[in-house]
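README: folding subset

This subset contains proteins for which both the sequence and a predicted structure token string are available. Records are stored as plain text. Below is the entry for PHD finger protein ALFIN-LIKE (243 residues), shown exactly as it appears on disk.
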Amino acid sequence: MGDAASGRGHVVYPPRSAEDIFKDYRARRSAILRALTHDVEDFYAQCDPEKENLCLYGYANEAWEVALPAEEVPTELPEPALGINFARDGMNRRDWLTLVAVHSDSWLLSVAFYYAARLNRNDRKRLFGMINELQTVFEVVSGARQQQSKERPSMDNGGRAKPSVKIENNGKASEEAYGEDDSDHGETLCGTCGGIYSADEFWIGCDICERWYHGKCVKITPAKAESIKHYKCPSCSNKRARQ
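--- output ---
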């Protein structure tokens, strides 16, 4: 089992709010990532194909464990992929770790939305929005997002893609020349209302947290956006004010 890391805030179990469920998700994700990266040699050794069906568990205290599946039926929580050890020696090591990562992402989401079953529609969207701000386990293990960033043009002097500002002109959405197209934002959620990105609406991205917002949600008009060199969302502005 991996070493437990310090917790990030107190969460009462089972978690009830979107924020507490996200904290649980983040902690379990950290545990899985540790197993597949920092502790990968230990993880690899524990996944002996000669043993019975094994699962990779990530816990809310950020510890990980390779263990047999739960015996009780039905289980207290959704179970991770069964038998991850069997394919270890029959695949390229990197491909096998990537496969475990994909199954782990599926499990992490299933646990989060098991807890989220009693949330309302808006809270579920907000939860998914927070989760979607993090890289998936697959993206970290495979380096997929880093590769996408290398291939994306129009970077500013700091090496980070400039945020786009979406402005409506005569019913058609136009984009200031920052080198990103609509496909880059297909799954973007508004950081305030959780609404899904639509090309026919005005959006603005925060230069600090890199989250996206409807202009109407943060009271920024297209005309006002023209005069903003670096936009800071209300949340980031409040954080700076409290410091």
